[in-house]
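Hi F.,

I've been meaning to write this up properly since the lab meeting, where we talked about keeping a consistent format for the predictions we share between groups. The idea is simple: the sequence comes first, exactly as it goes in, then the structure tokens exactly as they come out, then a line or two of notes. No screenshots and no reformatting. I'm using this chain as the first example so we have something concrete to point to.
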Amino acid sequence: MNLETMVLQLGSGMLVTVEIFVLTLIFSLPLGLLVSFGRMSKNKVVMTISKIYISIMRGTPLMLQLLVVYFGPYYLFRIKIGTGYRMVAVIIGFVLNYAAYFAEIYRSGIESMPVGQYEAARVLGYSSGQTFFRIIFPQVVKRILPPVTNEVITLVKDTSLAFALAVAEMFTMAKQVASAQTTVVPLMAAGLFYYVFNLLVAFCMERLEKSMAYYR
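Output, unedited:
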């Protein structure tokens, strides 16, 4: 295997890693907000279901969740699954897992807001939806950016768990190439990729946090 072939293989794995990362964020962030509403709901049934969901997602390994999402349809409903479902199962597993973490982050941010802001908005004639999305949520976003950044950085590294379903992301490709070539260079390249990726994520989140600062 020449250098060009190795680079192409690692590049294909890198694209899969980025795809898992981006799709997970796109779907888990809004889902986490919905789950946080359920967690804070005055309806005890909805609140209990949300609490159980969050407890299971946070209390069991992500790898186990990926296996359940992939094999569950067959063992529970006898639905035949093919290799094409692997990537879909990875995205579903990651989204469900990270939505639970984001839900608790959202909840902590929303519950930290002073009650007086809700009362003032009500006096000014704002509806509940307008109050939340125009007044409360922008402040919540600023407060939760640090913990969200930590979860996003963790997500970059967790993408390597996709190997559990034989999805060839960056780390899986690096292991395969390293095994075939009996060299650690591909693994070092993968490590460098994750480090640079996380640096980029941290930089973007820091810029976002500064742009939302109240005072310059």
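Notes:
The two ends are 54 Å apart (CA to CA).
The domain at 3-211 is CATH 1.10.3720.10 (MetI-like fold).

If this format works for you, I'll send the rest the same way.

G.
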